[in-house]
Design a protein that fits this description.
Shape: globular
Helix content: 40-55%
Distance between the termini: 123 Å
Radius of gyration: 37 Å
Strand content: 15-25%
Order of helices and strands: HHEEEHEEHHEEHHHE
Number of strands: 8
Strand order of the largest sheet: 3-5-4
Length: 261
């Protein structure tokens, strides 16, 4: 037994094994250090994770819509607001957005839609690209191409608007065949039949003109062309000159141009 004088008020405290006491002290210090180190490491990792989450959530490429409802650069979330769609259309076309679309050959304006004027060569392509980015409650189409009002443009109107289906395009364009006793809803009724039979995609509509592409070519194209001629006689009588040539044109282009004088 080793005695160590640790006198306090002249009293002696005897420690039997001072080396054991020292070992226990070092052990306690080591445990304390390990605990503190583990806590610090945990907190550090937690802070880093929170910073990463915050960074991803605030990044313009992180997904979701931007404050105006438009798409960011790398996401695939559809555009859901008309203002955001108009902004995107202006960016893609390089043209100034107009807070209206036109109808009656550009003579009248619809403030519920928005539009730009783009070159004819780009119009159908722009519509296709815009449609890939729009939500289900928005539509895009080629509008006025013949300008008979105060506005004079050497280009096509590209329209974005609120709509539940492609048939709302005709309503916004106010398309009709009034000289044949058919109003907008009459044209829609007939086009819906074609859509149910083989699928169509309307991309252009204005006062007296409608254009659509096929999602599936009619199996009996001859019968379809005869039916289409009854629906829109002017495409033959003032166009191709015969149903046979009209059929040939449709087969080559895989799209239909309807026009009522």
């Amino acid at each position: 037994m080793t005695e160590i004088d640790t006198s306090v008020d002249n009293e002696k405290i005897v420690i039997q094994n001072p080396s054991l006491l020292l070992g226990r002290s070092q052990f306690c210090l080591s445990i304390s250090y390990l605990v503190k180190t583990a806590v610090v490491n945990y907190l550090t990792k937690l802070i880093v994770c929170l910073m990463l989450v915050a960074s991803v959530g605030c990044s313009p490429n992180s997904g979701g819509t931007s404050p105006d409802g438009s798409l960011t650069e790398t996401e695939n979330v559809p555009i859901v607001t008309l203002d955001a769609a108009a902004q995107r259309l202006a960016e893609m076309s390089g043209a100034s957005i107009r807070d209206y679309s036109t109808y009656d050959f550009g003579r009248n304006r619809d403030p519920n839609a928005k539009s730009v004027v783009a070159s004819h060569d780009r119009s159908q392509e722009l519509v296709a690209e815009m449609r890939e980015q729009l939500g289900q409650s928005l539509i895009c189409f080629v509008g006025t191409t013949r300008w008979l009002g105060d506005e004079e443009h050497d280009g096509d109107e590209i329209v974005v608007a609120n709509g539940n289906s492609q048939f709302d395009i005709l309503r916004i364009a106010r398309s009709d065949a009034i000289n044949y006793g058919m109003e907008t809803d009459d044209l829609i009724k007939k086009l819906k039949v074609y859509d149910e039979q083989f699928g169509i995609e309307i991309f252009h509509a204005e006062t007296d003109t409608i254009q659509f592409v096929f999602l599936k070519m009619p199996e009996d194209l001859t019968a379809f062309c005869k039916d289409l001629y009854e629906f829109c006689p002017d495409i033959v009588d003032q166009g191709t000159g015969s149903v046979e040539l009209f059929e040939k044109e449709i087969k080559e282009r895989e799209q239909v141009f309807l026009w009522w004088d």
